[in-house]
Design goal:
ten-stranded mixed beta sheet
């Protein structure tokens, strides 16, 4: 191997140089060698020059020594070179030429001079500069990369391991190809500012691992593409431990593995980007923020259509994460939430999990190691075979509250079911209205319902007028420990099933509303004791005097604690806010004295004279034929 000693370039000579690739020594004795890796295609020829004017042939493997600081060496093609790299699919090997350098060097000029001596070429061949500067630990600056047309793997691993590289070249291409920038700056631990990335047309793996291990990177590039492809951003910023804020991610449609591990190990990241996709793809958010140990709050996740492994490990090992986002999807897919919050040791608040049916490993290890977590709310109706929730609550707080519907087997305990030592609170999944289209209701937890099926009424005793005044609350959620009267909202409500779900938010209107109905189930007591005094419970279309010793759970009642003449009545009527008497069969006198008004036995006003049989008229039950 020949050893060429290059003298110092004169300033006049440098001024006359063409814009070819140039290496400049930043300390005495720096060396540059182009080496062959594997069996790449033979180059058509290379030239070198110390002044950019006088050129000599260069043989691959020759070492150029720059004896003094500021000595420089230029490289260009003899005429044209097709590529500096290739891939042999038969042997699965990469074959390429790369520079090997010692000591500190600065690169400059147009790198395309290696392919075209005139430096006019602006398109890159496949594997064109694959690994070209890989391992050049003393390289502090990069040459220009003016190509506007890139090809598969053309810059793959180009500056991999260039630990001293502090600035990246511009990358003007608007349309990318597979692996074109993959691993390009991996391990460039001195790189602080990423180059602009204007491309709007992506390709699979185009940015994969691009800044992997760039531990000094503080300013990421803008990512304007709105249409993604599979694996496009995979592990792009993996291990960028100085990155505080992520770039915006405007794409609304996901592709498989598109954000896989994108910010994995970004230990300084405090703010996650907005994610607007409503339909996900397999592994799209896989390990996206894994190990982001400074992340306190997660971004909103509005997706309602999931895919296999879509959220796998998304926030695992985010040890400062305190609050999880809402997860609105009601239909699960296998592995969809597996390990999503694994080892989030500060996680204290998680959303209701609204799905009623499980899929294979959908919640497996979901909250594993979340040692501060002490409340879980689920809409599950069964545990399936237990594998769907395998170790999902292993390592959570030793005591807590597990909230579920009355359909779930809450007696199954352990790390894959209800945590041992936790208190269980349940709510009714359904309530059936009686033959008059009514039911009283209360719950241990906040619940929501469909106002198209029924309304929730608060009721106030009006003892002087011998009635109960009922007013509908403008809300579709009922707070825990609140007694209400459910009333169907049409004439076909008799026997209707009202469906309940857990409510995350309850409006303030409930705190502003007077209500004498008492709950038989509260947030602290699943079933209250019957108090002293005169108690009334719903029976048909009226509230009747209760003579039992034990209430039914999840109902509501009235209690008149001091005996009065009204307390001796066996029944009390209901009057609604619109002044329509809904129930009227009662023991109070003066009820429905208007002989022209007729009611059925549930107290519903009859608007047609076609009704025959038992009706209430003039306060009396009569038979009309």
């Amino acid at each position: 191997m020949a050893l060429l000693l290059i003298p110092v370039c004169s300033q006049n000579a440098i001024a006359q140089t063409s814009n070819c690739l140039c290496f400049t020594a930043l300390q005495c004795g720096a060396t540059v060698t182009l080496v062959q890796n594997g069996s790449p295609a033979e180059l058509d020829g290379l030239r070198i020059s110390s002044d950019g004017i006088n050129w000599t042939n260069y043989d691959v493997g020759e070492t150029v020594t720059l004896a003094e600081k500021d000595d420089c060496i230029f490289f260009r093609a003899a005429n044209k070179n097709s590529t500096f790299g290739s891939y042999d699919s038969s042997t699965k090997t990469y074959n390429y030429y790369s520079f090997s350098t010692t000591d500190s060097l600065a690169a400059s000029g147009n790198l395309m001079s290696l392919l075209d001596s005139t430096c006019t070429q602006i398109s890159m061949p496949n594997y064109g500069f694959y690994c070209l500067f890989s391992g050049c630990e003393g390289l502090v600056s990069a040459p220009d990369l003016p190509a506007t047309t890139v090809s598969s793997n053309c810059y793959n691993s180009m500056f991999d391991g260039c630990k001293s590289l502090s600035a990246a070249p511009a990358l003007p291409a608007a349309k990318l190809k597979t692996y074109c920038y993959a691993n390009m700056f991996r391990g460039c631990t001195s790189l602080r500012v990423a180059p602009e990335l204007p491309a709007t047309t992506l390709a699979s793996y185009c940015y994969s691992h691009m800044f992997d291990g760039c531990t000094s990177l503080i300013l990421p590039p803008e990512l304007p593409a709105t249409t993604l492809v599979g694996n496009c951003y995979k592990l792009m910023f993996n291990g960028c431990t100085s990155l505080v804020e992520a770039p915006e991610l405007p794409a609304a449609e996901m592709k498989s593995d598109c954000y896989y591990g994108m910010f994995d190990g970004c230990t300084s990241l405090v703010k996650a980007p907005k994610l607007e996709a409503e339909t996900l793809a397999s592994r799209c958010y896989y390990n996206m923020f894994n190990g982001c140990t400074s992340l306190v709050e997660a971004t909103e996740l509005p997706a309602t259509t999931l895919a296999k492994t879509c959220y796998y490990g998304m926030f695992q090992n985010c040890t400062k994460l305190e609050k999880a986002p809402k997860l609105p999807a009601t239909t699960l897919i296998s592995n969809c939430y597996e390990r999503m919050f694994y080892n989030c040791r500060q996680l204290k608040k998680v959303p209701t999990l609204p799905a009623s049916t499980l899929e294979t490993k959908c919640y497996s290890n979901m909250f594993f190691g979340c040692s501060q977590l002490d409340t879980i709310k689920v809409e599950l109706e069964s545990w399936s075979d237990g594998k769907a929730t395998a170790d999902w609550l292993s390592g959570v707080a030793s005591s807590g509250v597990f909230i579920c519907s009355d359909l779930l087997d809450a007696e199954s305990v352990g790390t894959s079911y209800v945590p041992t030592g936790w208190t269980v609170k349940t709510y009714p999944k359904t309530v059936t209205l009686n033959g008059c289209g009514m039911a009283t209701f209360s719950s241990e937890v906040d619940v929501a319902f469909d106002r198209n099926e029924a309304g929730a009424y608060v009721c106030v005793l009006d003892l002087p007028n011998h009635q109960i005044d009922c007013n509908e609350v403008d809300a579709d959620a009922i707070p825990a420990g609140t007694g209400v009267l459910l009333v169907g909202n049409d004439d076909d409500a008799a026997g209707r099933t009202i469906n309940f779900r857990l409510a995350d938010d309850v409006p303030d209107v409930w705190t502003e509303t007077e209500n004498d109905l008492r709950p038989t189930s509260t947030g602290e007591i699943p079933l209250v004791d019957v108090p002293d005094g005169a108690c009334y419970v719903l029976n048909g279309g009226a509230f009747n005097r209760y003579v039992g010793s034990v209430f039914s759970a999840r109902k509501a009642y009235f209690c008149i604690e001091q005996p009065t003449v009204v307390a001796n009545a066996t029944s009390m009527r209901l009057v609604f806010s619109e002044s329509e008497v809904k129930t009227s069969i009662c023991a109070i006198e003066e009820v429905m004295a208007d002989a022209e008004v007729r009611y059925d036995l549930c107290g519903r006003r009859l608007t047609s004279d076609k009704k025959r049989g038992f009706v209430v008229r003039n306060g009396r039950v009569v038979v009309e034929k």
